[in-house]
Please model this.
Amino acid sequence: MSDVKMKDIAASVGVSVVSVSNALAGRKGVSDDVRFRVEKAARELGYDMKKNDRSSQGMVIGVLTPEKYITVGQSFYWALYQRVAYEAAKSQSVTMLEILTFSMEEEEEMPKLLREKTISGLIIIGWMTDSYVKKIVNAAGVPTVLLDFQMKGVQCDAVMSSNYVGMYKVTRYLLEKGHRDIVFLGSVNANDNIMDRYFGYRKALMEAGIRERKEWILEDRNIRDGLAKIEVPENMPTAFACNSDWAAGLLYNELAGRGYRVPEDVSIVGYDNYLYDNSFADRLTTYNVDMKQMAHQAVKLLRGKIRGDDRHWGTRYVDSVIVERQSVKNFN
Model:
């Protein structure tokens, strides 16, 4: 029976697929009794034992990311994936990337990586609909870690930037420079990350006794297709708190085209510390997303789970610092 899968062995023995994988590969994380029963069931069911002779090989880590984020923030998500690939390579593992197209996400089509059954574990980078993520996790049959987002109702560990705290910090930075008229630029309902950053902005304003102005909460994209959408307000603020460096770059281009100078006429802060192919990057004050640490944590968590650590650690938030450059005017 060459089509016997690990899940068949797991069902026969009454253990998890991860336990079966660990037992057949000779890894730690299972008792001698479980290892014996798994190997016995595998032989009786006709499982091809050669498929699991990987004790001297590295792990194969699948990585999924949605096309909508590659389109919107191509360089940031590509850079984050490269960090994941580097962290995997340091431990003799390899990564396989699949970009989930708009149509795949809309139709909730299962990724090719999962259909081919070649990966030891899975990292999903970037938020998608709850139902799609849950279907992917349930179909994967391997340990899964969420990177740069989290999801309720899914028993997966997650690693995220400290969105709420980070945006609070950069908004406080503007306030400390004497700004009081501050716009938040970001489509709040696009995903949880932007929403968390919005509430960090609100907290900083509330602490300063400044009432939020609804007309100064601006969209930066079309939520459905992710395409850029920047509208400069009629009544200009003194500063913009942008939910990402990508949005900050688009805003800068729009303002420069209208004759505004930064920071002489208006100030801008961003979030990410990654703005590709825009000269404004060298001048933009921003909150640094520690991609190196996020990737390290995600790969470390996943490798531990592949080896049999079935504990649920929840969400790990990676905080960082403000990178101060020349995009903010000081009114003090």
Q: What stands out?
A: The two ends are 76 Å apart (CA to CA).
